[in-house]
Design brief:
By secondary structure, this protein is α/β, with parallel strands linked by helices. The protein has 2 domains: 154 residues, Nucleotidyltransferase, domain 5, CATH 3.30.420.40; 190 residues, ATPase, nucleotide binding domain (Nucleotidyltransferase, domain 5), CATH 3.30.420.40. 40% of the residues lie in helices and 17% in strands. The protein is built from 16 helices and 12 strands. Strands 3-2-1-4-6-5 form a 6-stranded mixed sheet, sandwiched between helices. Strands 9-8-7-10-12-11 form a 6-stranded mixed sheet, sandwiched between helices. Helix 2 crosses helix 4, helix 3 runs antiparallel to helix 4 and helix 12 packs across helix 14. It is globular. Its EC number is 2.7.2.1. Belongs to the acetokinase family. It comes from Rothia koreensis. This is Acetate kinase. Homodimer.
Length: 412
C-alpha cells in the first residue's frame, strides 16, 4: 500500500510517500465507538498488519498563503500531486496519513477521517492555534482533490491519554480545567509510542510488561514514563513549553517570574513573553545557539556559556529521569531517541553521569557509535540497560494508516 504522510503547517506542507506491506492475517480488527471514529484501536494495534516499509519520495512545499508563492493549501496539493505523479512514475496513492498535534481529551488513538472528525479537530484549535487549523486545511484540501481517498489522522497527544489524573491535573481551581481544558496533555506521543514498541521488541519483552523512561531529544524535547507499555507521566504539559530545557524553549519556570515580567516591564506583553519563552530561551538563551553540535565544539574549546547550557539541559533531564524511575516502579531501561538523543554521545554522557546514584553506566565505545539501528550503550556493570532507539514518526503514521484502512476494507 502506498501511503502519503502529511504534516500540514499554516504556511507549509511536509510530505513523504512510504510503501507499507501488510499481512492479511495480522491486520487489526476494525472497531468503532461511533461512526468512523476508531478510538478503540491503539496505535500499536493499528500497525499490527504492517510488516515492511520503504520511503519512495519526500518533500516540502513552502510559502503557502497570503503573500506567498502558493495561494492556499488546495494549490499546494496541486503542486504536490504534480511532483508525486512524476516521482512515482504514475503509481497512485492508496491512503493519506496526517500528523495532527492536538487531539484534546477526545482522541486516544488514530482515527479514519470524516467530516465530523475534521470539525472536531477545528474545535480543538484553541489548544493548538497554530497547528490544528492548518491540519484541518490539509484534510479538507485532500477531501476536495481526492474525494474517495481514505484519510487517517494520528494525534501527537493521543499516547498520553493514559496518564492518571494525579499526573495530568494541575493544582489550580477546577474551573480552569472544566471551562478551558487546562491540564497536562503531553506531546511527541507518536514518537514515544513508536520507540516504546521498538525498545520492548529489541529487549524481547512483551509490551505489557515493559517499564522504561524514554527521552525524546530534538530541538523540542520531552521525557516520558512508561509503565506496562503505556504513558503514565510526561514532561510537556498544557503546551510543549513545559519540562526540559530545549533548543529555544525555557522548559519549567516559576510562574511568578512570568507575572513579574509582565507587571514590571511595559515593553513585554503576553504575546511577546510567549515568543521569548518559546523562541528565544533554552539552549539559545544560555549558550547562544540551539545547535547541539556547535555547543559541543564550543564547550570543548573552553566556552563556559556553551558548557553551562549543556550542563543545565542534562541536569534537568536527569532530574526527570530519576523521578520517573520512581513513578514506573523501577525502569528496565532508559531510552534516548530523536536528533540529539540519537546522535550526541557527549550529551548522553552528561545525562548518565548525573544518574550515577541509580547505578547507570555507559560503555564509552558503544556510546560513540553512530548507527541507524537500535543499540545498547550501557556498560556491562550498569544496573539499568541504556538504549539508543531511532524514532520514525512518519513510519508510525504510515503503518497506522495502512493498518486502519486495510482493517476497514476487510471488515466492510
Amino acid at each position: 500500500m502506498l501511503v502519503l504522510v502529511i504534516n500540514s503547517g499554516s504556511s507549509s506542507i511536509k510530505y513523504q510517500v512510504r510503501e507499507v506491506t501488510t499481512s492479511e492475517e495480522n491486520v487489526a480488527p476494525y472497531t468503532s465507538s461511533m461512526p468512523a471514529i476508531n478510538e478503540r484501536i491503539t496505535l500499536e494495534q493499528a500497525t499490527l498488519g504492517a510488516e515492511g516499509d520503504e520511503v519512495l519520495t519526500k518533500g516540502l512545499i513552502e510559502n503557502i498563503g497570503e503573500g506567498g508563492e502558493i495561494a492556499d493549501h488546495s494549490q499546494a496539493l496541486d503542486v504536490m500531486a504534480e511532483r508525486l505523479d512524476r516521482e512515482l512514475n504514475g503509481r497512485e496513492i492508496d491512503a493519506v496519513g496526517h500528523r495532527v498535534v492536538h487531539g484534546g481529551e477526545r482522541f486516544s488513538a488514530p482515527v479514519i477521517v470524516n467530516n465530523e472528525i475534521i470539525r472536531a479537530i477545528e474545535r480543538l484549535a484553541p489548544l493548538a492555534p497554530l497547528h490544528n487549523p492548518a491540519a484541518a486545511l490539509g484534510l479538507r484540501a485532500i477531501q476536495k482533490k481526492w474525494p474517495e481517498m481514505p484519510q487517517v489522522v494520528v494525534f501527537d497527544t493521543a499516547f498520553h491519554r493514559s496518564l492518571p489524573e494525579k499526573a495530568w491535573r494541575y493544582a489550580i481551581p477546577d474551573a480552569f480545567y472544566r471551562l478551558h481544558g487546562i491540564r497536562r496533555y503531553g506531546f511527541h506521543g507518536t514518537s514515544h509510542d513508536y520507540v516504546t514498541g521498538k525498545a520492548a521488541e529489541f529487549l524481547g519483552v512483551d509490551r505489557e510488561d515493559f517499564d522504561a523512561v524514554i527521552a525524546h531529544l530534538g530541538n523540542g524535547a520531552s521525557v516520558t514514563a512508561i509503565r506496562g507499555g503505556a504513558s503514565i507521566d510526561t514532561s510537556m504539559g498544557y503546551t510543549p513549553l513545559a519540562g526540559l530545557v530545549m533548543g529555544t524553549r525555557s522548559g519549567d519556570i516559576d510562574p511568578s517570574v512570568l507575572t513579574g515580567i509582565l507587571t514590571r516591564n511595559k515593553d513585554v506583553d503576553a504575546e511577546r513573553l510567549d515568543e521569548i519563552l518559546n523562541k528565544e530561551s533554552g539552549l539559545t538563551a544560555v549558550g547562544g545557539t540551539n545547535d547541539m553540535r556547535e555547543l559541543e565544539q564550543r564547550a570543548e574549546s573552553g566556552d563556559s556559556g556553551a558548557q553551562l547550557a549543556m550542563d543545565m539541559a542534562a541536569y534537568r533531564l536527569a532530574k526527570y529521569i530519576g523521578g520517573y524511575h520512581v513513578a514506573v516502579g523501577g525502569m528496565q531501561c532508559l531510552v534516548f531517541t530523536a536528533g540529539i538523543g540519537e546522535n550526541s554521545a557527549a550529551f548522553r554522557k552528561l545525562v548518565v553521569d548525573e544518574l550515577s546514584a541509580l547505578g547507570i553506566t555507559l560503555d564509552p565505545e558503544a556510546n560513540e557509535v553512530r548507527s541507524a539501528e537500535t543499540r545498547v550503550i550501557s556498560g556491562e556493570d550498569s544496573a539499568i540497560t541504556v538504549l539508543v532507539v531511532p524514532t520514525d514518526e512518519e513510519r508510525a503514521i504510515a503503518e497506522a494508516t495502512a493498518g486502519l484502512v486495510e482493517a476497514r476494507i476487510d471488515h466492510g
